[in-house]
């Protein structure tokens, strides 16, 4: 994962050198080239920033934590980075300790977006700014900024990938007019306590509903609500079990007729694929494995895409996300307000949180090289092996 750290250091170094003309986080979909941070951004070396990440069971969160930490340290801050292993009490205790330990700012990727009200009240009472990282913290007035991707568009992109894989549309989302009617699909959602899961679901549903309504697609299980499709903690094993149950209850135990599965995350996708292959489907799409979508460009899934097993994934460049978190931190700690590019869509139940949203890309087998290898996100060797170096 060393490349993530090097990339973010390069971004922050460039921002710091250019800081004399900046006004904080800038607009545009490529933050590495957007407006630089302010000239006051270089802090005293004893300024502590607390960074709370949800888990180390997903390689993307390891990469996020490493990139944020190295970017902040390059900018001159001390960093307390903690992972909570998807345990809510552990994360609340870690954040309490960061506050007690003198953190001047908190960057939090919450496990449960509703479970941190007490910690955020304490932070606010001490003048500590809070940046919600990728997962929106809910039900608190004391969230100062949100950095993420356009999560509704992530869901749209996942649905479009599924439709493309089924021959319903082309890559640009235009109907082909050649798709067979009555194609059976199933749908999975993320963890209900993660606000992003709802945005992914809504974007996907708004895109798929016209094709379900006209009979092109059929959700054979009739499990069409987010509550029915949810996967607690985004766990691969949970997704595999649900897919196995659906195969037994709805598809005669063999998956007969199932053509596609909407999956919101690569770990869930791998669980789904394991279940499908377990009843003799596949081993690849060309051999009859249903089309399965994904998200996060995890290396194990990128290999599956290259091998024709998983159809697609949504690439969220966490190097750029970490860079935005660092820029927002620099602004807050120098007494400035980070510049948002969305001030209307992310209501956390108590307030609309000013947000900076990044764009995403859809990865298929034919653009792994251009999107992931050429950009340095993964190497060709890692794609071939499916293992991060």
From TrEMBL:
<dbReference type="InterPro" id="IPR049784">
    <property type="entry name" value="ChvE-like"/>
</dbReference>
<dbReference type="InterPro" id="IPR025997">
    <property type="entry name" value="SBP_2_dom"/>
</dbReference>
<keyword id="KW-0732">Signal</keyword>
<dbReference type="GO" id="GO:0030246">
    <property type="term" value="F:carbohydrate binding"/>
</dbReference>
<dbReference type="InterPro" id="IPR028082">
    <property type="entry name" value="Peripla_BP_I"/>
</dbReference>
<dbReference type="GO" id="GO:0030288">
    <property type="term" value="C:outer membrane-bounded periplasmic space"/>
</dbReference>
<feature type="signal peptide">
    <location>
        <begin position="1"/>
        <end position="25"/>
    </location>
</feature>
<dbReference type="InterPro" id="IPR050555">
    <property type="entry name" value="Bact_Solute-Bind_Prot2"/>
</dbReference>
<protein>
    <submittedName>
        <fullName>Monosaccharide ABC transporter substrate-binding protein (CUT2 family)</fullName>
    </submittedName>
</protein>
<feature type="domain" description="Periplasmic binding protein">
    <location>
        <begin position="49"/>
        <end position="336"/>
    </location>
</feature>
<dbReference type="Pfam" id="PF13407">
    <property type="entry name" value="Peripla_BP_4"/>
</dbReference>
């Amino acid at each position: 994962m060393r490349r993530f750290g090097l990339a973010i250091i390069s971004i922050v170094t460039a921002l710091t050198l250019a800081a004399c003309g900046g006004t904080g986080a800038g607009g545009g979909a490529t933050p590495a080239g957007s407006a630089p941070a302010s000239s006051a951004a270089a802090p005293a070396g004893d300024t502590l920033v607390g960074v709370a990440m949800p888990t180390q069971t997903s390689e993307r969160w390891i990469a996020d934590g490493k990139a944020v930490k190295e970017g902040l340290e390059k900018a001159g801050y001390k960093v307390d980075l903690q992972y909570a292993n998807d345990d809510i009490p552990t994360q609340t205790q870690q954040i309490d300790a960061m506050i007690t330990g003198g953190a001047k700012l908190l960057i939090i990727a919450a496990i449960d977006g509703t479970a941190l009200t007490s910690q955020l009240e304490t932070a606010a009472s001490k003048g500590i700014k809070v940046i919600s990282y990728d997962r929106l913290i809910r039900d608190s007035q004391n969230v100062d900024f949100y950095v993420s991707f356009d999560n509704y568009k992530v869901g749209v992109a996942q649905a479009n990938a599924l439709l493309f894989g089924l021959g319903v549309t082309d890559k640009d989302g235009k109907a082909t007019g050649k798709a067979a009617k009555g194609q059976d699909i199933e749908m999975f959602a993320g963890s209900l306590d993660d606000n992003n899961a709802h945005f992914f679901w809504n974007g996907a549903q708004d895109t798929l509903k016209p094709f379900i309504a006209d009979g092109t697609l059929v959700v054979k299980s009739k499990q069409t609500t987010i509550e029915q499709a949810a996967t607690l903690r985004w766990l691969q094993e949970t997704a595999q079990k649900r897919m196995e149950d659906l195969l037994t209850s709805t598809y005669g135990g063999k998956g007969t007729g199932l053509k596609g599965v909407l999956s919101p995350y690569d770990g869930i996708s791998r669980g789904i694929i394991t279940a499908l292959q377990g009843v003799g489907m596949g081993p690849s799409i060309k051999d009859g494995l249903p089309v399965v979508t994904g998200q996060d460009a995890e290396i194990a899934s990128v290999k599956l895409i290259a091998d024709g097993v998983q159809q697609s994934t949504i690439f969220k460049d966490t190097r750029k996300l970490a860079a935005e978190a660092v820029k927002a931190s620099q602004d807050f700690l120098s007494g400035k307000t980070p510049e948002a590019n969305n001030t209307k869509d992310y209501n956390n139940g108590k307030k609309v949180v000013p947000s900076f949203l990044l764009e995403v890309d859809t990865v298929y087998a034919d653009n792994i090289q251009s999107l992931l290898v050429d950009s340095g996100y993964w190497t060709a060797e890692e794609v071939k092996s499916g293992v991060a170096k």
